[in-house]
What does this fold into?
Amino acid sequence: MAWRLLKIGLSKNYPEPRMFTPPARLAPTYDAVIIGAGGHGLATAYYLARDHGLRNIAVIEKGYIGSGNTGRNTTIIRSNYLTPEGVRFYDRSIQLWRDLGDDLDINLFYSTRGHYTLAHTDATLRTMRWRAEVNKHLGVDSELVDAAAVARALPMMDMSCAGHAPILGALYHAPGAVARHDAVAWGYGRAADQRGVEIHQQTEVLGIETTGGEVSGVRTSRGHIATRCVISAVAGYTPRILDMVGLQSPIYIHPLQAMVSEPLKRWLDPIIVSGSLHVYVSQTARGELVMGASLDPRELHNTRSAIEFATSLSTHMLELFPFLAGVKVNRQWAGLADMTPDFAPVMGLTPVKGFYLDAGWGTWGFKATPVAGKTMAATVASGRNDPLITSFDWWRFERFELTGEKGAASVGH
Amino acid sequence: MKLIPCPLNGLRPADEFVYGGEVRHMPDPATSSDAQWARYVFNRSGIAGVKHEWWCHIASGFWFILERDTLTDEVRSSQHVAQWHSTVHV
Ligand SMILES: Cc1cc2nc3c(=O)[nH]c(=O)nc-3n(C[C@H](O)[C@H](O)[C@H](O)COP(=O)(O)OP(=O)(O)OC[C@H]3O[C@@H](n4cnc5c(N)ncnc54)[C@H](O)[C@@H]3O)c2cc1C
It folds into this structure.
């Protein structure tokens, strides 16, 4: 291994095949420009090329592939949402996830674990029963289980939570899964690249030009592009991009932090979430515990890590799993969550012709990567919002028709 | 822990406060159109910048106006609501 690395280091030409072709320079015009090479932007590019025959596409990324929330998220995948529109949408995503590794020819480490959302109060139990019934009605595997069943499945958990918040039951969702986030971005990126999509990293979009209310071009740090179609998939940077086309939206930015422990022998199979304790956790294939909590409490466009977060999350982790007291935290980080008032995304057409939005993914958008790519591509190709995303459209706020997912998305991701 | 200056209680740890969002001008509900009202209810100035915000010191139940840079998290000023109203005419 070391010898091979040395050889690669010393050779003039990189001796291994590259995942992506770095395109030499920007072309003066593209049929579509996608801003953001996170999972969503790359998936949209891939499905536009694969399903709709568009080839002349540029994905513009100011950093590197997956450097946004895609590479920072805790990778929980589930479809036990609250609204029928949400459940249908995320369930379609799970169907796509299941053979995505084959489709992209890459190991995504997609691992179905089962997902417990713990209830510590009667009010939470009530929402969970509601969720379970909506889920079952739409054919999604989801059920309310009692405290005894939780204790049987998780014998290492303190069911009284240090006496503060006894567990009364849980919503159990068997399809709950985790996957390797970087591989998702790389897989979509490579597959798009193979179909002729150009991925321009280290290129920042600085402005979007419109003529008569229609998109006509994009200004970047590496030159000008003429195009009539721009798709913004920039998560935490969405308000800045909207500002370039003169739009205001309900999207606001708060940091979301996470941390990971040193690797431990495998002891935790399912994903555990507790909204009341502000904690969720899963164990990776490498044995690390990936842990997160709720949003930082104030607007901030900054990915700094805060000690308050680590101490409060650790305290709650120990209420659930006191035996972890001696375990060390290895890393802590943050991403910028693009939040919406109803905890549902904002997708599709906008008041600016040729400007499409894929945003409002807050703390929950990783699981939607495949279905967001697919529906955004269909929307751009047809010029009409895909039927799966009509409840997530731009105009729902002025119609006062929100898609209320808060009960299913605020800590659970 | 981050400290927040409160005009009543001085510098206190951030977790003694709740954040109440940016100070915004409410249109007259009697005369504004549905669309104007929806914009007021839902839209936010999402881009980073120096903003005036509502904050509350929980233990004392005291609301005040904090001026903060949402890119760097630096606090610029902290003032009584009355003081804010006397300097800003919205
Ligand atoms: C800590 C954390 C935990 C999370 N956990 C989960 C979870 O368990 N499950 C789940 O489903 N979701 C989770 N999420 C949410 C999820 O990560 C995001 O919703 C999702 O990854 C968004 O993907 P994206 O491709 O839209 O955006 P991103 O991956 O953020 O990509 C946007 C890209 O746009 C680029 N960009 C921005 N501005 C410009 C510009 N002007 N020019 C060019 N490029 C630009 C950025 O550099 C970035 O690479 C979590 C998020 C965080 C932060």
Q: What stands out?
A: The pocket of flavin-adenine dinucleotide is lined by residues A 35-41, 60-63, 67-70, 72-76, 204-205, 233-237, 256, 258, 292, 335, 337, 361, 363-367, 413 (CB under 6 Å). The longest strand of chain B covers residues 50-57.
